[in-house]
Amino acid sequence: MALLDHINLKAQTDKNTGFGTNSSSYGGRFINKNGVANVEKRGMNMLQRISWYHTLIDMPMWTFIGIVIAFYISINFVFAIIYFGIGVEHLDGIAPSDTDWEKFGKAYFFSAQTFTTVGYGHISPKGFLTSALSAGEALIGLLSFAIATGLFFGRFSKPTAFLKFSHNALIAPYDGISGLMIRMVPFKNTNFTDAEAKMTLGMSFEENGQMVNRFYTLDLELVQINSLILSWTLVHPINEQSPLYEFTKEDFATIQGELLVYIKTFDDMFSSTVAARTSYVFSEIVYGAKFVPMYTRSFDNSKTILELDKLNEFESITM
Predict the structure, then answer these.
(1) Angle at the Cα of 10 (from 6 to 12), degrees rounded to 5?
(2) Is residue 220 a contact partner of residue 199, using CB atoms and an 8 Å limit?
(3) What angle do CA 72, 73, 74 make, to 5 degrees?
(4) In sequence order, which ranges of the chain are alpha helices (DSSP H)?
(5) Dist. CA 183–CA 234, nearest whole Å
(6) Please, which of 124, 156, 195, 222 could form a disulfide with 228 given CB 3.0 to 4.6 Å?
(7) Nearest-angstrom CA–CA distance, 265 and 262
(8) What is the Cα–Cα distance from 76 to 111, expressed in whole angstroms?
């Protein structure tokens, strides 16, 4: 308890985090490793509480492509069933001698040709009902491809901070004391300028018989850099003003805490400011370690080599 009293007296509190103070109402970490808030929303139906546009824009590319392909296959399957139910005799080009499977297959591919407005002409609708159905399907196809095209464009044009953070935070010697260190790196061919960083410590402990959350701003060696081209190691000096002052290896193992990291930078390609965030719970902090250097000069001394696969590599040292 004396250690937590020391934090309250010496550290700079942060009341602008957006997280509440009642610790008993929280479950798990504040922010997930991927930067998404660890919150599940309830009380409204799914159609009201979920933005399908944001969902389709943010999901992984292969998942998005899989949904598009599954939708295309499924909707043509539905229309093929309807055509087959109306009667394939209302589709010119399907022979009465074909088996039911062959008739259904031809109805399916007629649906695909109508949905995409290709219309090879081998099979054509005959009669009002099939003509009206094919006209409606063509309209649905045009609208569907317009939506899919817009989503593809939105995914490619969305400003994104292509930054990766180290899996662990480290406690290492720093300038005669110790420092908390987190490393990040831009991993695509982007140009980041005017990068700014903020680090906040969140802790839960008992106060007046009730579990509460307290947040503290962690001073950084560098808050802003002009250009983020190589790796950037955020360093919080653990001095007398730090809420982590006099923390031991055992304290990190027994006290519940979480580091919230926020990065904001300008992307020349998008001509827009982008942001990224992540978090580290105390169990993800390695005490007595330092990061392995990520970049070095090339053999011919003509360029700098940035080795992205070394982002998470560190070595143990004596504290």
Answers:
(1) 125
(2) yes
(3) 95
(4) 2-10, 46-49, 52-58, 61-86, 100-115, 128-157, 249-254
(5) 6
(6) 195
(7) 10
(8) 6
Contacts for 94 with CB less than 8 Å, ≥ 6 apart: 88, 103, 106, 107, 123
Query: Taking Cα atoms as reference points, which of 240, 167, 149, 257 lies closest to residue 203?
Result: 257
Residue with tokens 């407005």: 117
Q: How far is CA 159 from the centre of its chain?
A: 13
Query: Tokens 């099979």 identify what position?
Result: 123
Q: Which two tokens stand for residue 5?
A: 């009293």
pLDDT averaged over 10-residue windows placed end to end, the chain, 319 residues: 49 68 70 82 79 88 94 96 90 86 92 90 88 94 94 89 94 92 92 94 76 85 93 93 86 86 92 93 93 91 92 89
* DSSP strand pairing (232-238 vs 177-186): antiparallel
As a residue count, the chain comes to 319
SS3 291: strand
Tokens read off for 245: 């002052």
Phi, psi of 80 (to 5 degrees): -65, -40
